[in-house]
Every structure is written in C-alpha cells, then in structure tokens.
C-alpha cells in the first residue's frame, strides 16, 4: 500500500508544516473525542468534477495536559486558514489557536500544536475544513454507478466504506475503534438525490448558498466507532418492511433492481427479531437500512443503522438466483445483523480482537439461519465448511492466532480472514457444545449488558462465560474459560490427537501435537491445547453426546499432560473421537482401528456412523495421506465407500480434498487413472439423483438440492454419464430462444455447470453469446455465474482476451468482481498457465488498477498457489514475488502463505505421487 503525503494548504497564516516526531502506530491517550459534528458537501452531478468537502467539529476532552492534538487524516486537503480551536468548559473559556502542524505519513497522523497548553479536565472544540476528490477506489468515501436502462445513462451515487481504517480518507478523525463518540451528521447534495446515514433524518431544507442543493440533518447517533459511520447520496428506491416492534426497516437498491429486494426485506426483520429474543436486548436504533451497492469490495459491512452490501449479497431473483445464492444471502444478512450487537453495541478495544465480532457473528448467523429456515438443514453444513476452511489455513506455519497483535493498517486488513471468521466461529461452537446452551447464552447476554456502548477485549468475554458456566455447573469449579480458550485463541494452529489403542487392556493412549502441512518442519513442542474429548464406540454409537467425557490438559508451562482412556471396547469394535466434529482438531488412529472403520464404511452399516463424522473421517484420512502419516491405500479405501453415500456432508468433504489433488495430478500422466477412479465413485450418486435432469422441484430436502448441484458439477468435469451432452443440449436450447435474456430453459441450480461445460466444449460464438448475456443481465448473482463460466474456455486467444477485459475497467466488469473472473481463468488447465504468466507480466498495472485495495492481490494469488507443484516453478515464483514487493504492499502474509502452500505441493509431488498412482491403479 502506497502512503500519500497529506495535502495541507496554509493560506496567509504561515503555519509551519513539518515531519512528525511522534511515531507510535497508535494515537496518544492524552485526550478523547466526546462528540463529532460532521457536514459533508458532495458533488455528483458533473462527471468531470466528482468531489466532496466539508467541516468537522470535534468536542475533545483532555485527559492529561498536552500541547498537541494528534488525529488521523489521509489524502485530505485541509484548509488551515479555517482551523479553529476553542475551550468550551470552565469560566475563563477562551479561544486557543494552532500555531503549527505536522504530518506522519506512515501512520496517517495529522498533528496540531496548540498556542496554549490544553488542560486536563477541560473540553475543547476543534474545527477543521477539508476537501478531496470523490474517487472510485471502493474505500473511504467513494463513488459508484449503474446504468439506467430506460434513459441509457450512467447514474452516480456516493457511499462510504470505512472498515478498518478508512474514515480518515473521508474526514479528519480519531480513527481507532476505542474512540467511540456520538455523531451529528449533515449531508449537503443536489436535490435530485436522497441522503441516508446511520440515523433517521431530522430535517431537510434548501441549501443556504447553493441553488438546487439541500441540507439533510440526521439525528445524533449513539456512541459509535469511526469505522461504523456511514452515509450515502443516491437516487435509489427502497422497500419498507413492517416490524411489530417499531424499528423502521428499509431495503435499498438501484430503481431497476428494487424488485430483487423482496426476500431480503422479508428475511431481515425476522433476523432482527431472532437476535432481540436471543440476547434479551432490543435493537437500540429507531431505524435500520440495508443497501445494495453496485461497486463494493467485500461481501457486506455492518455500519450501525446503515448496512452496506455488494449486490450478490442482498439481491435475490427467483428467476436467476440458485438455492446456493439464496442461502449465501441469508447467511450474510444474518452475519451483518448479528454485528449490530457484537461489534456495534459492544466493540473490540483494538483490532487484535477482531474475532470478537467476526467469529461471533459468523457463528450466530448459523444459529439464526437454522432457526428461520430449518428446512435448509444448513447448520451442520456451515459448521463443517468452517472447519474444512480452518483445517486448511491453520495447518500452515504462516497462519496466525485468532487473537493477534496488530501494529499497522495493512496487518488489520490481513486479519479479515478464515482465522478470525471461521476459526473464531468454530471455537465458539466448541464452547457452546462443552458448556451447554444455557450457560453459553447466559454468558453472552451478561457480556453484552456489561459492555454495552463501550469497548471490550477477549478476557472480558471469558470472564462472563466462566461466571455463567460455574453458576449452571456446566464447567468444574477448578476449570476456567480463560485457561481453556486462550490455548485456542492465543496460539496458531490446531492439534492432531494420536490415538493408540491397547486392545488387550482395552485402553488408549492419547498424545497431541500441532498439525502442520509442511513436512520439512518438526512438530515436536509446537504448543498444547485444552481439548474436550467426546467419543463413542461401535456398540454405543452415541454421536449426539457432544459433551466432553474427558479433557486433554496442559501444564502451566504449556506442556501436554499424557492421557489414557479406560474401558474401551474390545479388538472387534472401532472407536471414534470428536463426536460431530465438536472441536477443531484432527484424529489419527492405529492401523487396526482404521481397518475396523473401513469395514463399517464399506458395508450396509455405513450410516451407523454419524454423517458429520463420516465427513470427518474422509477429511482426516486424506490430510494424513497428504502429509505421509497414512498410506494412500488406506485413504482411498475410506473414500471408496462413497459409492453408497447419498448425504451432502461427506461429499462436500471429499470434493474439497480431491480438488487439491486434482489440480496437481491433472498436469501429470496419471490423470487418466484418477479420472477413472472419480467416475467410479461419482456415477452411483449421479444416477441416484437423476443426473443433470431438472428434478429439483421434486426433491423434498433442500440439502439434497445442494448435493445434486455439486455432484453434477463434478460429473460434467469428469464426463460421467450423460452430463456433458445434456449440458450442451440445455445451452443449445437457450441459444435458440427468441429472447434469451427473458427466457432461460437451463435449470437455475445447474446453470454454473451448464454454462462452464458449454464454454469449455463450445465455439467462439458460444462464448460471445454468454458475454452478451453478461452485459445485458440485471441480476448480480447471474452476472457472477456468467463471469466465472466465461473463464472455462480452452481457447488460448479467448482466455488471453478475457484476461485483458478483466482489468480493463471499461468493459463492464466491475473492480469488485474482477477477482471472480481472474480466478475462473486461473482454475482451469489451460487458463492456469496463461493467468500465471499474465499476472507475472502485468503485476505493475494490476497493482495500479486496484490502487491500494489491500484484499485484492491475495485473491488473485489463491488459484495460482494451488497449481504450482515443481521445485523449479516454486523457485521461479518465489523470485518473482521477491522482485515485485513494491506492487504487493500490504500482502506480506498472503505471500508467505502462498509460498508455503506451493512448497507443500512440491513435497506432495516428490513424496506421494508414485504411491498415489499405485494406490489408484490398485482400486480400478
């Protein structure tokens, strides 16, 4: 990320502006803001001159005598002739003044030196006038647009995105989460627009000096962190929802998409009601708006009272959006509204504890969606998907703890990842399962009540939960949550529990070590976790009891205490640890126990093992085969049983794992054997689900719809049954429609597969047809499906042209969507080589295109890192990344992880390729 020098105008005052001597990354603690009065004038009418400006008055309480005020400002022009500083409290309150300013570009500090000392206990008002260009960079206060199809004109809107540290791009402020203060916001804009902000409108009146402009003043907010401040000037329409408890609830979108707001407008209020009942705390604001923004860099943002979404996360069209799209939408809305309590009402003190809002909101969203849509059976799937994601990411040495030290802005952005979200969610689920629902809910409630409108850190949550657990008796008095949970949140990684049974004495010895994918690293002394041990046996089959029967403990110095489990069954019965994957750890057994498990899986009795544990066994054994703890013979015997499997979760588990092996093996001579093996295991379930035929309306269980969608996708990739010819026939029928934009005969849930298959096996005109549909589509979910399918071509020239279109910016692919298109090209056999070369040749222009959007480059690295597997290519890519540092600023962690993932691919190829090939041949 490039840091720009602050632009400061000092007209006539002769204020000295110097480089800063204060260089700590956090603001000084000698003062705090009490209230902000913010006025923002936005110019959106003239495309040649997009800009904004305004004035912020900050009431500041002085906590220690000081001669300066340090706050954040970035890329703002500050007119210092208009700066004022006056004392507001005390009898002798007089004007003070500012005699000089400094800037610190490394930390975005703007430092004002006062003429007289600022005295502890007094309140001062600082007034600053600022202005800037309204850019399209998807960060800070920026502009976005859409095309009005009737007038065929581009319409412009403005919107904010301040998390984690971009409020400073919009107005000078104390831009840290710990500095909460109420905001009074006034927006000034042309009368043809509407203004929205966190709070309801107080009044709108004509502008005092600008013709055809209005001023809209909003009610004063509750105390709020700067990253949650939000406002927008737009010409959108909205859909009101009726809420029994009086909160005004509105869903906003561009006028030509307002008909796609129905589902979100109906679902959102149910979510709000669920959380109000769960926490026993009413939503504290008089209104909440949710708005679909055409250009948005992340999924959504929980600004208090004005939640912003990318269009795919809020808009739903019954004609164009699949069940998967609908479930993703529900999940995102439930996640953002959970933040209204966890994040907005109670905010983390510093970004170290980002997970206190993100991990909690991720887990609460799964509970909420399950409550509102039990027919989806989505909770088990969400929990499994979160665990699969962290087992991958957290097995890297370059991963990080859930609660991690954060020293600079780029590190904050890097924390918005699977560890904060998915691992945070998984450790909360583990806690709920070992504490029980009553203690868990009671602990969360008391935490929210105690820290409402304040800031907290993870120890505060542990304290509330420990008290609740001891009160209900769900945790022994000698245990406390902090000791247990710090082992999961303050250290990187997760354990593998090695279970070695003694079949004569009917006992098992358990040991733990950190599981690492990189086999060059020693695993000895890599941490200790407090592990809740739930387990069951072949005779008992009590998978529903997820409470721990025993604990694996750690000494005070962090050593693992050896554990022996007594009274296990005899040598003819298996045991399974970690019922329903209730905690994020892997389990490896001795050879006899694996043999017993394989026998049951490959018999009619396979369903006697809980479906989540079937998914667990698949995931665990494929990991152990990858890193060499298990033989691929055993791993493939485990997954051979899938010929019988008809449930979603085990298939999800195997596909996630085989995807990684597939991306290496498809570049080798053994791919034919791998393909035959996959055909063998997929064919029975494909036929059971009636192939790619449109039988979706007759499937009673929604999770079976998702299973069919997933199986069809793999079946077409591996030419199972009639998948490819049927897909091509669907596409041909669509192409022969008189009005293909209105009438699409391809079944919604298999469109992504049909489009991709048809582009892969089709002609240039098939590609052009789909590109035209992309440009004409008005539904974001459909546009995303098409963008991804266009990357499936095997024509080199088509893919090269597509790569250029992606980063063109003028061809209708929005900056926030470009990653999907690039990933789609890079994921295919032909596209990978081209995408890698394009990325390496054009890193400078790609970096300029994203203009400091910190999350963008890592997303482009993701598909590349999974397919490089030779030592030569690893060295070449490593050199390239080292040479391109100036274009990869803010991506240090992503680069480290990329190189580690490539290294594990190289290790796999060198260690396992021959053995894997033999094992596959053996099963054919």
TrEMBL record:
Pfam families linked: ERAP1_C, Peptidase_M1, Peptidase_M1_N
Co-factor(s): Zn(2+)
Signal peptide limits: 1-18
Record CDD domains: M1_APN-Q_like
SUPFAM superfamilies linked: Leukotriene A4 hydrolase N-terminal domain (SSF63737), Metalloproteases ('zincins'), catalytic domain (SSF55486)
Single GO molecular function: zinc ion binding
Domain of life of the native organism: Eukaryota
Domain ERAP1-like C-terminal: 574-902
Localization per record: Cell membrane; Membrane
EC number: 3.4.11.-
Domain named Aminopeptidase N-like N-terminal: residues: 33-228
Keywords: Aminopeptidase, Cell membrane, Disulfide bond, Glycoprotein, GPI-anchor, Hydrolase, Lipoprotein, Membrane, Metal-binding, Metalloprotease, Protease, Signal, Transmembrane, Transmembrane helix, Zinc
First-tier enzyme category under EC: hydrolase
Site (Transition state stabilizer): 421
Domain Peptidase M1 membrane alanine aminopeptidase: start-end pairs: 263-488
Statement: the UniProt record of this protein carries the keyword Cell membrane: yes
GO cellular component term, pick one: side of membrane
CC cofactor note: Binds 1 zinc ion per subunit.
Annotated family: Belongs to the peptidase M1 family.
Descriptive protein name: Aminopeptidase
Organism: Drosophila yakuba
Gene: Dyak\GE10462
């Amino acid at each position: 990320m490039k840091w720009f020098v602050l632009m400061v105008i000092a007209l006539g005052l002769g204020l000295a502006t110097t480089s800063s001597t204060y260089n700590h990354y956090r603001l000084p603690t000698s003062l705090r803001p009490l209230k902000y009065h913010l006025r923002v004038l936005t110019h959106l009418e003239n495309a040649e001159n997009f800009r904004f400006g305004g004035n912020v008055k900050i009431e500041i309480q002085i906590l220690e005598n000081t001669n300066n005020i340090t706050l954040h400002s970035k890329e703002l022009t500050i007119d210092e002739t208009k700066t004022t500083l006056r004392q507001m409290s005390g009898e002798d309150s007089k004007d003070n003044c500012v005699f000089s300013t400094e800037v610190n570009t490394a930390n975005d500090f703007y430092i004002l030196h006062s003429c007289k000392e600022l005295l502890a206990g007094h309140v001062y008002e600082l007034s600053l006038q600022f202005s800037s260009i309204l850019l399209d960079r998807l960060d800070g206060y920026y502009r976005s647009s859409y095309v009005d199809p009737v007038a065929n004109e581009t319409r412009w809107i403005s919107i904010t995105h301040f998390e984690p540290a971009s409020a400073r791009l919009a107005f000078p402020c104390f831009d840290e989460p710990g500095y909460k203060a109420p905001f009074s916001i006034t927006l000034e804009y042309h009368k043809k627009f509407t203004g929205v902000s966190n709070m309801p409108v107080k009044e709108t009146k004509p502008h005092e000096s600008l013709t055809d402009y209005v001023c809209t003043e909003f009610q004063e907010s509750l105390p709020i962190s700067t990253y949650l401040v939000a406002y927008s000037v737009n010409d959108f329409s909205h859909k009101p929802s009726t809420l029994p408890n009086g909160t005004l609830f509105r869903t906003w979108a561009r006028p030509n998409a307002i008909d796609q707001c129905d589902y979100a407008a109906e679902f959102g209020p149910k979510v709000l009601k669920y959380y109000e009942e769960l926490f026993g705390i009413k939503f504290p604001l008089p209104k909440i708006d949710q708005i679909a923004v055409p250009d948005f860099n992340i999924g959504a943002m929980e600004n208090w009272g004005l939640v912003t979404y990318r269009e795919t996360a809020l808009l739903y069209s019954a004609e164009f959006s699949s069940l998967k799209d609908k479930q993703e939408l529900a999940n995102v809305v439930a996640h953002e509204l959970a933040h209204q309590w966890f994040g907005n009402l109670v905010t983390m003190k510093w970004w170290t504890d980002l997970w206190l809002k993100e991990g909690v909101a991720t887990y609460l969203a799964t509970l909420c969606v399950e409550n509102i849509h039990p027919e989806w059976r989505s909770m088990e799937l969400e929990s499994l998907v979160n665990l699969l994601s962290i087992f991958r990411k957290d097995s890297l040495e370059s991963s990080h703890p859930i609660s991690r030290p954060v020293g600079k802005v780029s590190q904050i952005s890097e924390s918005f990842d699977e560890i904060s979200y998915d691992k945070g969610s998984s450790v909360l689920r583990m806690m709920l399962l070992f504490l029980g629902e009553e203690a868990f809910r009671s602990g969360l409630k008391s935490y929210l009540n105690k820290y409402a409108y304040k800031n907290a850190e993870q120890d505060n949550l542990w304290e509330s939960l420990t008290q609740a657990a001891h009160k209900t008796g769900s945790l022994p008095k000698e245990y406390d949550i902090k000791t247990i949970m710090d082992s999961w949140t303050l250290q990187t990684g997760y354990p593998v529990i090695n279970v070695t049974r003694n079949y004569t004495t009917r006992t098992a010895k358990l040991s733990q070590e950190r599981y690492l994918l990189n086999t060059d690293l020693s695993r000895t002394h890599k941490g200790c976790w407090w592990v809740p041990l739930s387990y069951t046996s072949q005779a008992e089959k009590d998978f529903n009891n997820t409470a721990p029967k025993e604990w694996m403990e750690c000494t005070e110095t962090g050593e693992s205490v050896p554990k022996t489990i007594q009274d296990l069954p005899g040598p003819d019965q298996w045991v399974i640890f970690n019922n329903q994957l209730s905690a994020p750890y892997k389990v490896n057994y001795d050879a006899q126990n694996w043999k017993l498990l394989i026998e049951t899986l490959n018999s009619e009795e396979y369903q006697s093992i809980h479906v989540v544990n079937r998914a667990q066994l698949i995931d665990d054994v494929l990991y152990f085969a990858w890193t060499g703890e298990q033989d691929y013979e055993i791993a493939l015997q485990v997954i051979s049983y899938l010929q019988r499997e008809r449930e979603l979760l085990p298939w999800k588990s195997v596909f996630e794992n085989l995807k990684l092996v597939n991306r290496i093996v498809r570049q080798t001579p053994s791919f034919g054997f791998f393909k035959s093996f996959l055909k063998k295991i997929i064919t029975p379930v494909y036929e059971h689900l009636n192939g790619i035929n449109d039988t979706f309306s007759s499937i009673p269980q929604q999770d079976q719809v998702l299973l069919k969608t997933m199986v069809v996708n793999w079946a077409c990739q591996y030419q199972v049954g009639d998948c490819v010819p049927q897909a091509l026939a669907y596409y041909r029928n669509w192409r022969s429609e008189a009005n293909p934009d209105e009438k699409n005969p391809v079944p919604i849930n298999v469109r992504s597969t049909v489009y991709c298959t048809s582009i892969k096996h089709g002609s240039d005109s098939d590609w052009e047809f789909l590109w035209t549909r992309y440009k004409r589509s008005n539904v974001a979910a459909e546009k995303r499906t098409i963008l991804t399918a266009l990357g499936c071509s095997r024509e080199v020239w088509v893919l090269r042209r597509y790569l250029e279109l992606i980063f063109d910016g003028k061809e209708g692919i929005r900056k926030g969507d470009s990653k999907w298109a690039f990933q789609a090209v890079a994921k295919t056999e032909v596209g990978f080589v081209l995408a890698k070369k394009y990325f390496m040749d054009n890193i400078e222009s790609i970096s300029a295109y994203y203009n400091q959007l910190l999350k963008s480059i890592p997303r482009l690295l993701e598909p590349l890192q999974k397919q490089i597997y030779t030592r030569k290519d690893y060295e070449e890519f490593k050199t390239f990344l080292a040479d391109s540092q100036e274009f990869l600023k803010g991506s240090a962690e992503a680069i480290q992880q990329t190189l580690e993932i490539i290294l594990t691919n190289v290790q796999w190829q060198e260690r396992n390729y021959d053995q894997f090939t033999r094992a596959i041949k053996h099963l054919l």
